[in-house]
Write a structure and sequence with these properties.
mainly alpha
Amino acid sequence: MLKNYLIKFYTPEGKSLIKNIKAGSLSDAESIILEEGYMPSVILPNIFLDLLRPISNAGMKDAELSMFFNELYQLVKSTGSVSKALGYMNKDIAKPEYIGKFDLLYAAKRLYYNHRQSQIKNRQKFIRNCLELIDGGESVKKIFALNNFEEIVLSLLDLAVSTGDYSEAFLKISEYFETKNIYKKNIIGILAYPLFLFLLLFVAFSVFLYYIVPAFSIFFKQFPHIPESTLYTLGLFKYLKNIFVYCIIFTASIFAAFMADLSGIKTKAFSFIQNIPQIRNIINYGYLNWIFYQFSLMVSSGVTVNAVFNYLGKNTSKTYFRNKFKSVYEDLMKGASLFESIYKANFLSEDVVESIRYAEIGGFLSETVLRLSGEFKDKSDRYMKIFTKGLFFLAMTGVVFFLLLMFFSLFLPLIQGMVGLSANY
């Protein structure tokens, strides 16, 4: 996704100017201004403009979009008209009649009604906007472009304009958003449990540091003998307590800088991760699964291979792959075959490149790319399971270490002191 960046730069005459540039990352923004012949001095994310930019996909979520386009597909197929289909969909949920009722059931029904209305308000707003634009003479593709839909949606609609079969295009778009929604849920679902364990560990450590350790310190002052290990532990926790807030602020600052890609931190981090074999496989296979699905969808819909890689080169979020796709597109435009272009870009394994070569020769590229997408998904799932098991093991190791530290350095000396045993060991 492109973001806005404010760049302060100098002209050849030495004049200082400020310009807003749309780019995928901070490093890309710097490259753009350098290509224009200017020397940048300061580059900052234009957060305010990013917040004000129009909402993509008419403000609807992927699951909502999948359902919307599936309904649109069914209605267009039966009515033969996009405007008639949208007219049938332009229905509000009837307001319930609860006159004179103020019991708990009434309140629950009102809450449910308000929840449903908030869910569909973007959908209804979009449908009415479409009908108004159609009445004004705008094309279907133009309507979706004005509502900031993704380029792949516009590409599929562009083909529907030439073939006249909008229902098939809407079905493919519905499948696209359904697959996109599943792809996101899989990543979130796999990582949720290990991250939840780390969050619990952080909360437990915070409570331990601010409440339990001070209480233990008060108890230990009553004992004549305290083990040296306990004294060292209490001193360590006292030091950690003094810097704990600063550590949190520092971590939050690094995270914010990473998300905003200040000084190319995010880009450099991903470049570093690309060199770690296990992590690289998870990222690459998971991302290639999604990329090859888009590739297959566009090719099967009649989009040329050149147009596919032009789209991928402009809309891919990861810098590594974006540069590779741009390289493939440039070679394709020079007249090279898809096999030669991908082989030269050197970002796929030899067996994948060979499969693409045979598919290009045999004319079954769409089916092959879809099969490769499934293979990438299987590999991604396998490596992701290994990765999450490693995170789980790391989290459990942290919990065990934390419990052992508490027992041997705090609880055991406390028990010994309370029963009058010697604590010298």
